[in-house]
Amino acid sequence: MKCLQNLVKYFIVLVLVVGIAIFMFFDFNKEFILQEKEERVLAIYLENEPINYIPDKESGYTLDLEKSSCNNGVEISFDYNTWTIKTNYNNYENTDNTRVKCTLYFREIKTIEETLHQLATVSEGTGLYEVEHSDADITFTTDSTIIDNLQLTELRFGGADPNNYVWFNDELWRIIGLVNTPEDQRIKIVRNEAIGRFSWDTSDVSINGGGGINEWSQADAMKLLNPGYESESIGGSLYYHRSSGLCYSNHYNETSNCDFSSIGLTENSHEFIDDITWTLGSNGSNVWNEITTSQFYDLERSNNVGKTCSSGYFCNDTVVRTTSWTGKVGLMYPSDYGYATGGGSATNRSTCLDTYINQWQEDNYQDCYKNNWLYHDYATFSIMPVIYSSSVGSDVYTFFATSLSYPAAYNGFDIIPVINLKIGINIVGGTGTIRDPYQLSI
User: Fold this and answer.
1) Per-block average pLDDT, block size 10, for the chain (442 residues)?
2) Which residue from 62, 68, 61 is spatially nearest to 87, judged by alpha carbons?
3) Strand partners for 405
4) Is 209 in a helix, a strand, or coil?
5) What is the pTM of this model?
6) Where does 132-252 have alpha helices with state H?
């Protein structure tokens, strides 16, 4: 009899504990009570094992939104930062008068590197690609560190619209991939939209005819995007510090108002960004528009500087050209754009990669840019200098919608920031879709 009484007491306590846990869960997350419909049936799993509590934010686990769901058309969403699970009744249906039941699955938090490595890769179409490199294809500079840290396989997203969306800086960015840098591989991400139209670099008419100087380590756009240039009266670190002022926007040092107070980098975002060595090789003696994606990848890491002239109206600057720069915020490479294609039914990805990028504008190769998530319908600067003429020192590679071109740096074209994340950033939520982007946490 005593054993039975103890068993009854244990059962009552267990029911109370579970009931209190669920009640506290609903009380803390008011969003669970919508349109006067209350969820009273809740199943919770931790790594597929049933549990009777809600893991807290410091548990090392997060909600697996792909596996979690509610019945009766109720949709579920999750905000890791506020540790809030929300239900949406917009598509609610209940023909059999059943209560809403939600099943929640919690999983171990993984880094963004681990997450990409666990994704299935594709060989055609839209998705995550393995990009293979070989020693024979890559001519690095003589810096042995760069050579030693080379990884033969990268992971890059390609196709028309892969699920590579990430919530960063309180806005949408996208993952280019897990790519090689001189410091080893990093997750590279790019802002989903341009921050405005500004000069890559500009100059007085007496310097390169006002066309600017194609050396990123001292460029006006570099100083706009990165810290350390706060003393500059025009553009200096305005984007990095979420500020406003004047920015260079045309030749002869012309300026215009620029306001990054709502779209610049936040203080919190600074903690995610790594200092990386960005290689600045040019096309050198190669014909500027007869270059494939893998050849661009090679040339970007070469010891070709962006200037071969030393005098003349368009080449009289005295700035020393370099083949590397260490900093936080840069721009896309031509090879980033090239590897982002997924090809199509008329022209597959392999053919696109074997074709000069500048030929993609031709009728036979339109699949290459139409199924490329980095395609942009307005002129967008890359970080790579170009030698188009042996008498010009101001040209940079620029994406002109369907093709590449070689305009002078002074032009006011789209600036789209690119950064490399520090190693070990966690994905704590999201599935990578535009509606449910990955959520990051340190």
Assistant:
1) 41 33 35 40 91 92 92 89 88 87 94 96 97 65 49 93 98 97 95 98 97 98 98 98 98 97 98 97 96 95 94 97 97 98 97 97 96 96 97 97 94 98 95 94 90
2) 68
3) 398
4) helix
5) 0.87
6) 144-148, 220-225
Q: Which of 339, 340, 300, 296 is nearest to 323 (CA)?
A: 300
Task: Note the Cα 176 to chain centre separation in Å.
Answer: 5
Helices (H) and strands (E) in the chain, counts: 9, 28
- In sequence order, what are the beta bridge partners of 121? 128
Sign of the dihedral defined by the CA atoms of residues 180, 361, 395, 223, in that order:
negative
d(CA 198, CA 247): 7
Up-side HSE of residue 396: CA atoms within 13 Å toward CB?
Answer: 31
CB 65 within 8 A of CB 76: yes
User: CA 438 to CA 427: how far, in whole Å?
Assistant: 6
Q: At residue 404, what is the residue type? A: L
Dihedrals φ, ψ of 309, to 5°? -95, 170
Q: How far apart are CA 426 and CA 166, in angstroms?
A: 12
Q: Are 249 and 199 in contact (CB under 8 A)?
A: yes
Residues 240, 187: Cα–Cα separation, whole Å: 19
Q: How far apart are the first and last CA of the chain?
A: 55
Specify whether the CB–CB gap between 373 and 157 falls below 8 A.
yes
What are the φ and ψ backbone dihedral angles of 426, each rounded to 5 degrees?
Answer: -90, 145
Q: Which residue has the tokens 């949709």?
A: 75
Residues 6+ apart with CB under 8 A from 284: 299, 302, 304, 387
Given CA atoms 361, 365, 366, 367 in this order, what sign does their dihedral have? negative
**Would you tell me how many other CB atoms lie within 10 Å of the CB of residue 442?**
11
Average pLDDT over the chain reads 88
**How far is Cα 346 from Cα 365, in angstroms, rounded to an integer?**
8
Q: What pLDDT does 150 receive?
A: 61
Residues in the chain: 442
Looking at residue 89, what DSSP letter applies?
A: -
- Cα–Cα distance measured from residue 279 to residue 399, given in angstroms and rounded to the nearest whole number: 19
Distances (CA, A) of 166 to 152, 189, 191, 295: 26, 8, 9, 29
